[in-house]
Amino acid sequence: AQSVTQPDIHITVSEGASLELRCNYSYGATPYLFWYVQSPGQGLQLLLKYFSGDTLVQGIKGFEAEFKRSQSSFNLRKPSVHWSDAAEYFCAVGSSNTGKLIFGQGTTLQVKP
Amino acid sequence: EAGVAQSPRYKIIEKRQSVAFWCNPISGHATLYWYQQILGQGPKLLIQFQNNGVVDDSQLPKDRFSAERLKGVDSTLKIQPAKLEDSAVYLCASSLTSRNTEAFFGQGTRLTVV
Question: How many CA atoms, within 13 angstroms, populate the side-chain half-sphere of residue B20?
């Protein structure tokens, strides 16, 4: 069955500290992988995506993610977190044929001053 | 470029009432999705349109939910009658095609059923 697991429901980091949000997926074919961010009351904004090629993907707002096929993981990283990064983050796997997205349950990021 | 527009932003109804949500996708986008996001969960696909045809409605509770996409542009999602468990944010998204493209999301409609 296709699924996405985000093991950490809630993470708190200090401003300026590094961040890594974990994502593991289960998918039969070559996955298309995404990270979205959702601020309160807002829709989903795409941070970055992996379709093929270089397994280290750069996104907006200084985020990056690395696709590791052997570990079925697509972890999101940022070297220095800003207070404005506080939000909910969703990892998703997408069908290359239909575009349908399967989302993880999300990780809420809190940033301490 | 204008984004995906949804209305209303918020709706409160009593159980057993009906409700409708509207979505206007990005101009030229052939694929339109409706997702349901229950509090504390990730979004779940309800229905996907390619132009005005349904591609996937396997997760749509068809006894109470219906959706249409007239002329392959705007779309409406209806719930009749609503249940308490339908309380959620309903997100509309669109993409240029269904293959190899990113989906753009609207701000969503927050439905509360009391």
Answer: 8
